[in-house]
Amino acid sequence: MGRVALVTGGTRGIGRCISETLKANGYRVAANYCGNVEAAQKFTEETGITSYRWDVSNYAECEAAVAKITQDMGPIEILVNNAGITRDATLHRMTYQMWEDVIHTNLTSCFNLARLMIESMRERGFGRIVNIGSINGQAGQYGQVNYAAAKSGIHGFTKALAQEGAAKNITVNAIAPGYVDTDMVRSVPPAVLEKIIAKIPVGRLGRADDIARGVMFLIADNADFVTGSTISINGGQHMY
Ligand code: NDP
To answer: What is the Å distance from ligand 1's center to 80 Cα?
Structure first.
């Protein structure tokens, strides 16, 4: 039987594609979502992948969900921290709530789930954690102080935890996508999007499967020498 993988925010957008790609490659997938029940039901009908509803920013809900998935499917050996939101505004218009929502959903969630799984991974001597960061966590972005801080935090979290997991065959890596064609990016005004695409050397937005392929590479059993890295998948928009 394939290893059990949890994909947060796994019912829509990039996460959905990751869930489907993992399933197609023999993993047993649990997909998390938060509020969009209709999308999750459609996803489960179309893919046969079970979806679990909870808020990844809430530690107690994460704890209950990890216990439930483990009971249903067995120990989770692969964690893809993909759930994320934006609440954009320049700092002088950003409320504390917008800051807190983004930091907790995008960054604290990585702590919550990794913390709840790390002991089991250490005991088993196997774990693969992939955190979805962002080009905007690497380069910053006007109007996204909260999002850039959370995503930048993910990159630091990844490197620190990679050092802790290395001796136990637990790899921890990040992917920093550029602009990918999902609901999140479709909410960007068309005129702004046009300017963004003009800055992407390959001349197009990313596709969710560009990111899913990166996840597949990082979670392979024989990818144990790749840890603490951030793979930029951004069409050449930001290189460093
Ligand atoms: P979408 O908005 O299309 O999907 C977001 C997913 O996250 C949904 O499944 C949503 O659930 C889930 N989610 C949101 N908040 C929570 C929460 N509190 N608890 C549990 N699940 C939650 O996003 P994308 O697919 O575009 O983005 C996926 C990841 O990639 C994010 O981390 C994003 O920051 C990152 N990224 C995206 C880029 C892009 O261009 N699209 C670029 C760089 C990074 P529900 O359906 O219930 O709302």
So the answer is: 12
